[in-house]
Every structure is written in structure tokens, then in C-alpha cells.
Amino acid sequence: MALTIGLTGGIASGKSTVSNMLKDMGIVIIDADVIARKVVEDGQDAYNQIVQAFGEDILLSDQTIDRTKLGSIVFYSEEKRLLLNSIVHPAVRKQMLAEKEEYIANGTSTIVLDIPLLFESKLTSMVDRTILVYVDYETQLKRLMDRNNLSKQDAEARINSQMPLKEKIPLADAVIYNNGTIEETRIQLQALSKEWDIQ
Ligand SMILES: CC(C)(COP(=O)(O)OP(=O)(O)OC[C@H]1O[C@@H](n2cnc3c(N)ncnc32)[C@H](O)[C@@H]1O)[C@@H](O)C(=O)NCCC(=O)NCCS
Ligand SMILES: Nc1ncnc2c1ncn2[C@@H]1O[C@H](COP(=O)(O)OP(=O)(O)OP(=O)(O)O)[C@@H](O)[C@H]1O
């Protein structure tokens, strides 16, 4: 029987770093962020709904969604964020489930769903077990500011739009602590892979 694992964390906590390690081990990854980009491409239902809800001001000259602009709206307004979530999340969920079922039908033994908002959106029923990639707040803030070239204020707005990582620890079946080096993270993942027979 297939094992479906939900990989979660916070923004810039190291999910992609861990999911790339899993990919290198040959594990199948379904990435919610990648799907969330696809379902808002021009011509998709969610695209039309976003333009209707947020106006044409959030479009770039090539008619694609200006993600920086939309981000600067939704990360500073819970109301707008919930509105965007209500448009995008059902389409993401549907696509993730379809991909998961296809992999299961093809006999894949382990499937990892990389979902940043797994706990916030109460999606744990989609998976058998959960892994949290944890970093402390200061490290998360610094890595996010460096990676996305964000001001402290913008980085904090993004972090604060999610459930605090500390509150996710008791909700997860396993925690990978990513404050240290990449190598230290890899060692924790290898130990967990052995324990859970991830292959
Ligand atoms: C707001 C948007 C336009 C910003 O785009 P941008 O390219 O700058 O960021 P990207 O999509 O790569 O997301 C980066 C990270 O931001 C965080 N994040 C994204 N959306 C949200 C949200 N609605 N609430 C909390 N955190 C979020 C996640 O940790 C994600 O990994 C975009 O994130 C979006 O459309 N979000 C709504 C869909 C969503 O919730 N996606 C997350 C997983 S389904
Ligand atoms: N152990 C580590 N040591 C140093 N830098 C790290 C470590 N882990 C991750 N990083 C860096 O921190 C940043 C965030 O990591 P990563 O992209 O893996 O996070 P993420 O959780 O996938 O983020 P998001 O969901 O926002 O895309 C990246 O620039 C990455 O290179």
C-alpha cells in the first residue's frame, strides 16, 4: 500500500531543501506551490475569479498576474488573503488529489505532498503522516529576507500570515530541525527515511 506524506513548514523554513533531498532519493513530490502557480494561469477559472475579485490592476502588461503586487495586498490583509485562498485553494486541492491518485494507481510506494499550509488549511486527511520542517523565527526571517530580497517588514508580514511554526510542532508526526547546516538536515531526513521505510 502507498504511503502518502505531507511535508510542511513555514515560508522559507526549508521545505524545498528537504523535498529536493527526497527527490534525489527517487521519491515522488507533489508541490502545492507549483500547482498554485499553474491554476492561476491565464485561461483558468481561478485566474478569471482573481481578476474579478482584485481588479485588472493586479495584472502585468502581458496579462499574467503580478505576484509581487498581489502578495503585497494579501500578506497585509487577512480579509484579502482569505478571499484569494477561497479562489485558489479548492483548485489546488483538486489537482493535488488527482495527481496523488494517479501515482497510487501506477503503484508508486511513497508520495510526498509538499503543502506549506497543510495545518492552516486542515488538509491532513489528504496524507497518512506529516513531517514539519522547523526553523526558529530569527533564522526564518533572515533566510526569507536574503532569499526574496525583502525588507524586514515585508518578510514579517509573510511569516505572520501563517500559523507560528512552534504551534505546528505538536501537530506533526515528525520534525526536521533546519536551523543547522544542510548536512545536519540531511542526516535527520536519512534517519527518518529509515524509520518510516521511505523508498
Ligand atoms: C500571494 C501570491 C500571489 C505570492 O506569490 P509569490 O510568487 O510571491 O510567492 P509563492 O507563491 O512562491 O509562495 C511563497 C510562500 O508564501 C507562502 N504563502 C503563499 N500564499 C499564502 C497564503 N495565502 N497564506 C499564507 N502563506 C502563503 C507559502 O509559504 C509559500 O510557500 C501567491 O503565493 C498566491 O497566489 N498565494 C495563494 C495560494 C496559496 O495559498 N499558495 C500556497 C500553497 S497552496
Ligand atoms: N540548513 C540551511 N542552511 C542555510 N540555508 C538554508 C538551509 N536550509 C535552507 N536554506 C536556505 O533558506 C532559504 C529557504 O529554504 P527553502 O527554499 O528550502 O524553504 P521553503 O520552505 O521551501 O520556502 P518557501 O515555501 O517559501 O518556498 C533558501 O534560500 C535556502 O537555500
Describe, in plain words, how this protein is organized in 3D.
The chain is built from nine helices and five strands. Strands 2-3-1-4-5 form a five-stranded parallel sheet, with helices on both faces. The two termini are about 10 Å apart. Helix content is about 50%, strand content about 15%. The mean pLDDT is about 95. It has one domain (about 5-195): 3-Layer(aba) Sandwich (Rossmann fold), CATH 3.40.50. It is of the alpha/beta class. It binds dephospho coenzyme A and adenosine-5'-triphosphate. Adenosine-5'-triphosphate binds next to helix 1, helix 6 and helix 9.
Protein topology:
Layout: E1 3-9, H1 15-24, E2 28-31, H2 32-38, H3 45-54, H4 67-74, H5 78-105, E3 110-114, E4 129-134, H6 137-148, H7 152-160, H8 165-168, E5 174-177, H9 182-196
Parallel strand pairs: 1-3, 1-4, 2-3, 4-5
Helix pairs in contact: 1-9, 3-5, 6-7
Bound molecules: dephospho coenzyme A and adenosine-5'-triphosphate.
